[in-house]
Amino acid sequence: MNPSTLAISAEKISYVYPGFDRAALMDLTFDLRTGATLAILGANGSGKSTLAKLIAGLLQPSSGSLQVLGEDIVTPSGRDAIIGRVGIVFQSPDEQMVATTVEREIAFGPENLGIPSTEIRRRVDDLMQRFDLAQYKLQSPHLLSGGEKQKVALAAVLAMQPQLLILDEVTSLLDPLGRSEVRALISQLRTQCTIILISQFPDEALLADRLILMRQGSIVKDAPPAEIFLAADSPENYGIDLPLYFRLLKAVRCADNPGKSG
């Protein structure tokens, strides 16, 4: 693939946390084209969040090469070059909120990037309207519900207009209604930037063009979601449940072909 069409190019990247002998990530190699939506699934400890932090420049690979948006982020200058161009939202929005009101929270990132105040005002007003947050603009974001906090966290990252958006288990702490609201927002964002969606919920992978399945720091599957969910060697073998539709489809197939297991 032409390097100019890639948002990410990773070759044999590994990462070992200080004080640990075992690598959290081992020899990961993959590319991600610009404009794609990639889902990453895996059980706890599979390395999903570590990979997210490497891509966002929050950690440095212990070995291997990693290009993000055309920048070599193994180097300090490369990590500096992706500030504001890569946005990451974590599962606990309280940990990344710094302002006293919702509108100040959304404005914080663009202000640090030196965006003109008139443009910041336009972005903040637009995002508060899009995410239905205008009624909370003068409230503390820490006092909102879980779903509303995640909306604020998403809006705050999008205010910087990132080219690459990483969502690290952003629905894992939400109730069903909050998950539904955030998933709807993710669907709307697919046309605006490259997205990496890290999740514990396999049905969220259906929002993506492509699915990477991880286990113990390695990539074990990399294909369109439906292809992985329908495979005989399915995510169930790696501690990941199938979405309901694919469980039912496999059950029907097994009923029609009792001699086959997949």
Kindly describe this structure:
Helix 3 packs across helix 4 (117-130), helix 3 runs parallel beside helix 5 (146-158) and helix 5 (146-158) packs parallel to helix 6. The chain has helices spanning 48-55, 76-81, 102-112, 117-130, 146-158, 176-189, 225-230, 244-256, and strands at residues 6-15, 25-33, 37-42, 63-68, 71-72, 86-89, 164-168, 194-199, 210-215, 218-223. It has a six-stranded mixed sheet with strand order 6-7-8-3-9-10, sandwiched between helices. The protein is globular. The protein has eight helices and ten strands. The mean pLDDT is 89. The protein has 262 residues and is of the alpha/beta class. It has a single domain, classed as P-loop containing nucleotide triphosphate hydrolases (Rossmann fold). Strand 7 (164-168), helix 6 and strand 8 (194-199) form a beta-alpha-beta unit.
